[in-house]
């Protein structure tokens, strides 16, 4: 075990082993691709341009053309490929404007074309007008997403094509409820909200359990606080729809991996704008921040082996068979040596944020569930992210130990109400993969944007694309004798970098 873990650690760079991990993911290598590899559709690149973008030495920065109608709200976007880490750019992005309408008839596995009006993000000369948007029984939805793939681009490509459909599928069932903001969502579909007869029946039933003492409404009736229902706000339904969509997307990848070659896995960062609110859903280590009046407002958290240590340890504690008798769920400051058996050493369990001493036993000599620290931390010495989509075939190197049970597809969803604030043209939402955040701090990004945008023509809708390009350039740096370098001669990012700059003032106008 020790030999193969050492081998795994030596071969893994950036989260997934470049060579042997492919064998774990490659069971579908002979199957057809679910979708062909490419760059985001809204870039409108030709095959030759896609090929040129894959130059790992020149690393050209791709941006939107002058036709800013390709994306809503004059959103800016820029990307660059890695410096040789993987053949393809494993980042993927999609952005669309959609119209959510209640589904006609029964439930379908994919959105009904008659019930969901969609504006493709491809340039088609139609601007931002929604097709057939004369209906008044639906809701406009704006969607941005970033997917950071590993061990191949397959899962990221699939998610970029399909996740928005799963979100629509979930929202279609509740669209009538969301439109009726004056009334809280009913607890049970089909019944009237706040139905007095329901409360009456509940109290009568409760009274009967007390032996009939105290009719409802009589002075001897106990307070009814234990029988009141929770009031669920509308935004919680949207959050639940997004969470359910992530789960369904992950299950679809699992099902289809036996039919298609869907390589590896991916992190997912999604923004949905609906009824005046931004819903930012993150599963992985990409990041979203809002810059408002120069102030940074974090809109996501990174999920890594270190940030999710207690969840991972608890799962391993409850289901030790997942460790394959090769790993220990306990954490130690360093690898335990055989000569230390019987001695007392610092350790940490799933229920602890602090540290304590324990007597070392034989089981403690096993390899730790979480190996390394910081950006080098890995689950079972294999993968550096703990949430995302795919990775269903991923195993510990040279073993039959699956890692997927420890990887969650559940996103954290944060909500930002655009109606609560007045936004200026320089207030933006930044979405980016970890290629940006590995080398630039939130404050550096905010300073760069707040210095860049005021120097642009305020009437130029391309200014946000230029701001995205500037951020990518700052993170990529310049190729020198000692590699890619950024300001203060720091090491630049060798990873794929993808960045959205979304102006919030347009969201206020949509509201």
Automatic annotation (TrEMBL):
GO terms for molecular function: [pyruvate dehydrogenase (acetyl-transferring)]-phosphatase activity; identical protein binding. Residues 105-131 are annotated as: Disordered. Coiled coil: none annotated. Transmembrane segments: none annotated. Residues 74-504 form the PPM-type phosphatase domain. SMART domains: PP2Cc. GO terms for cellular component: glutamatergic synapse; mitochondrion; nucleoplasm. It comes from the Eukaryota. InterPro entries: PP2C, PPM-type-like_dom_sf, PPM-type_phosphatase-like_dom. Pfam families: PP2C (PF00481). PANTHER family: PROTEIN PHOSPHATASE 1H, PROTEIN PHOSPHATASE 2C. This is Protein phosphatase, Mg2+/Mn2+ dependent 1H. The gene is PPM1H.
């Amino acid at each position: 075990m020790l030999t193969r873990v050492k081998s795994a650690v030596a071969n893994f760079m950036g989260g997934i082993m470049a060579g042997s991990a492919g064998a774990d993911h490659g069971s579908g290598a002979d199957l057809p691709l679910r979708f062909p590899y490419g760059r985001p559709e809204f870039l409108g690149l030709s095959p030759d341009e896609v090929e040129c973008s894959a130059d790992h030495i020149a690393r050209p920065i791709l941006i939107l053309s002058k036709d800013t109608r390709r994306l809503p709200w004059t959103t800016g976007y820029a990307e660059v490929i890695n410096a040789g880490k993987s053949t393809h750019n494993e980042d993927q992005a999609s952005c669309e404007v959609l119209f959510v309408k209640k589904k006609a008839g029964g439930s379908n596995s994919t959105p009904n074309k008659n019930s969901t009006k969609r504006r493709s993000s491809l340039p088609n000369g139609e601007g931002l007008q929604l097709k057939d948007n004369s209906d008044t029984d639906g809701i406009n939805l704006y969607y941005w997403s970033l997917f950071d793939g590993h061990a191949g681009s397959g899962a990221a490509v699939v998610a970029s094509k399909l996740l928005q459909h799963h979100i629509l599928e979930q929202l279609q069932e509740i669209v009538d409820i969301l439109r009726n903001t004056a009334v809280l969502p009913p607890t049970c579909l089909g019944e009237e909200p706040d139905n007095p007869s329901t409360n009456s029946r509940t109290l009568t039933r409760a009274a009967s359990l007390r032996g009939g003492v105290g009719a409802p409404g009589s002075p001897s009736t106990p307070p009814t606080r234990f029988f009141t229902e929770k009031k669920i706000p509308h935004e919680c339904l949207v959050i639940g729809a997004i969470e359910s969509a992530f789960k369904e997307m992950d299950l679809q990848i699992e099902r289809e991996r036996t039919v298609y070659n869907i390589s590896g896995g991916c992190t997912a960062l999604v923004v949905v704008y609906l009824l005046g609110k931004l819903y930012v859903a993150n599963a992985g280590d990409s990041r979203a921040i809002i810059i408002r009046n120069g102030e940074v407002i974090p809109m996501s958290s990174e999920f890594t082996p270190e940030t999710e240590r207690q969840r991972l340890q608890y799962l391993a504690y409850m289901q030790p068979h997942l460790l394959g008798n090769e790993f220990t769920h306990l954490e130690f400051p360093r690898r335990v040596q055989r000569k230390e058996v019987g001695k007392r050493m610092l350790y940490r369990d799933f229920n602890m944020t602090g540290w304590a001493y324990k007597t070392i036993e034989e089981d403690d000599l096993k390899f730790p569930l979480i190996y390394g620290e910081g950006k080098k931390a890995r689950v079972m010495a294999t993968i550096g992210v703990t949430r995302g989509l795919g990775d269903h075939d991923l195993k510990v190197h040279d073993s039959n130990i699956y890692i997927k049970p420890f990887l969650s597809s559940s996103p954290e969803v944060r909500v930002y109400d655009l109606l609560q604030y007045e936004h200026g043209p320089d207030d933006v939402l930044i979405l980016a993969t970890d290629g940006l955040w590995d080398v630039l701090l939130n404050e550096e990004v905010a300073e760069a944007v707040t210095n860049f945008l005021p120097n642009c023509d305020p009437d130029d809708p391309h200014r946000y694309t230029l701001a995205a390009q500037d951020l990518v350039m700052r993170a990529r740096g310049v190729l020198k004798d000692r590699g890619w370098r950024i300001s203060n001669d720091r090491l630049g990012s060798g990873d794929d970098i993808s960045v959205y700059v979304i102006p919030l003032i347009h969201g206020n106008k949509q509201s």
